[in-house]
Amino acid sequence: MGIQGVSAGEHALRKLVVPLCLLSGIVVVSGFFFPEIVGETISGRAWLVTSLVFFASGLSYLAVLPTDVDETAHTFDPEYLLRVRRLELADTAKGFLTRQDPITFGVTVVAFTLFFVGQLLIPSETIAAIDAAQATVTTYGGLVFAGVMMLAVLFCLFLLAGPWGSVKLGGPDAEPSYTYPVYFTMFFTAGIAAGIVFWGPAEALFHYETPPTYFDVDPGSEGAGEAALTYALFHWGFTTWSAYIALGVPIAYYVYQRGAPLRVSAILTPFLGSENLDSAWCRLVDVLAVFATIGGIATSIALVSEQFLVGVDFQWDMTFDTLGSVLFVGGLTFIFVVSAQSGVHRGIRRIAAVNVVLFGLFAALFLAVAPRTVVLESSSSAVGSYAANVVPMSLHLGDGLVADEWVAEWTIWNWAWWLSWAPFAGLFLAALSRGRRIRTVVLTGFVATSLATMVWFLLLGSTAVHLQQTSAVAVLAAVDAYGGSEAVAGFPVFETFAIGQLLIFVFLALIVVFMTTSADTSTLVVAVLATKRDFAPTTGAIIFWGGFQGLVAVSVLVTDSAEVLQAMAVLTGGPFALVVCLALVGLVGTLLTHDADRSSSAEPSGEGSEKDHESTDR
Description:
Layout: H1 8-33, H2 35-38, H3 44-64, H4 89-99, H5 102-121, H6 123-140, H7 142-161, H8 180-192, H9 195-199, H10 203-209, H11 222-236, H12 238-258, H13 269-272, H14 280-316, H15 322-342, H16 344-369, H17 372-395, E1 398-399, E2 402-403, H18 405-432, H19 438-469, H20 475-481, H21 490-495, H22 500-530, H23 539-558, H24 562-571, H25 573-594
Antiparallel strand pairs: 1-2
């Protein structure tokens, strides 16, 4: 096996970032926990740059460490579907455009260019048109979104309990490429993004202040607290993750069982055949997937830049202008591009592991100081309410067949947003799932991920609502003081506790690593979709698409169009609601045809028969 990661560029980067990480780490830790040592000698912008250098150097070093996997060979192993082909710089530059799919590449670049031109030249008309379109889709299309998400949940439950769950992706002799913990870690961190840290402390508070119409409770009441936590579970639990399974499992089945290419358009295999997946309909599906992915990631980067800077401001009383946000996005882009170009088995896998460790550490620290009796009682009540009401909540629109304002702005908007992320997350899940039984894929992507997310929202949400309800902390007043920004909600909660500074420090680190683990994966996925089907994405393609996502995020900040681009990404949830229906109908028909005689009795007991293995550093 060749040693991966010994290129001159990566070797030089490793040597450079070690001293940078040590020096910047000393400054950041000293300033955070011992501010009297540093005093006011460093300006706010210098603090931001130093923090970014610390995170960027540490995570980049982790990403470019060598490993015993040879990716330098000029052959493409179809069984390792997210492999990155590494070429010399001259070859990469010379052949870049010839390897890109002209339609996927061209339409995506032109579409984002036109969006920002419109935002600059006719901003009010652009905003009005997109907002009107989003309001129409989420209000009058609410029944479609609710129905599709309900269908996705039922599909997941059937795969868990039915005979098709025993289908082994790749055939009976296929073996997983990653151990189960690595498999779960990479999908969970890629699929949830930074939304879990952005909304974890905030969503229940907003529902507490303005209760959902499904529950007839007064704002700020005890009943509003339970309703708030119930809907937080609803919006981030089983229903949401089912969208990823609804696309991920069909893509994986057609790729591994029917020889389709690793594309979102693989879901059209039963309708067109695996040899006809170059049609205009397939191109349309893949282009929409690329647009939705870039729009969703770029918007998320812009939002978490706000949250990170608000946290620094809250801790050190340092305000930042647009340049501060641009600096943050630039630093974050550097991290996820380095991670993405290093490949799944290095940067993406390792930073995902760091992410989960920090996630668990923060949860343990927070639980140690939180009002545990309150958390347990509130969580038990909310879980019971969720179990009793999840079906009627799934069908509730509030105004007959039309969504009322609250449902449209929260529930239906959430369903559309998760559906717009489903192509990217589903494709990544499919690429990781060779050698897994379908039941294991669903247990991971639907059950385990949902439980991890729900525990987080119960822990942070119940504490935040309790502190607000008892007037121990005026969290909503802090939100109002920051212009109604959800980004600040967690910091006054953390400050309440004796280890508040440590909680804020780890939380800021979580913001960076959670966004990195989604952005590096999305960069790789976009590069796969935009590259011609006969080629593996090159390092140059990874750098281009990662830089493009960062550029879109910077443009969003400069033109103040984060919400507008987010609305456009949400609008793509409409077409993908229909794509999900096609995917489920097609997969059920295919399974009925090719696996009709499969019964649950034929399934080996447990997953042990598909013994997980992991190569030396894979």
